[in-house]
Amino acid sequence: MSDLRTTFPFPLAPDTGGRITAIGGDPAIRAMILQVLFTAPGERVNLPEFGCGLFNLVFEPRDDVLRAATEFTIGEALARWLRDEVLVDGVDVTVEDEGVVLVQVAYTRRRDLVRQAVRIQFR
Length: 123
Prior knowledge:
This protein is of the alpha+beta class. 28% of the residues lie in helices and 25% in strands. The protein contains three helices and four strands, in the order βαααβββ. Strand 2 and strand 3 form a beta hairpin.
């Protein structure tokens, strides 16, 4: 049986300065993960709880408590909104010099139990 889902490309794309990049994982699932991460709760009129508000967190003071809270928030949002597609195995957030934030999401696709990871970098 073929997969009849239609996926649309996510509007975000990496620019020449490398401000947003995502590598690894299934392209359709990667796009869904990006949508959850970069959508702020309240942004969607008909689904106001959707998203995790990652961009709001990057303006907070950088410490271990915020990093752990961000990992938890991302993990919970992905588990809630993508529960039919993936099992979230882990989330790792790292802040590098010059304000570069790295988010790595390890997940297992439910349809075939293949483990994959997506690494997202932004400023």
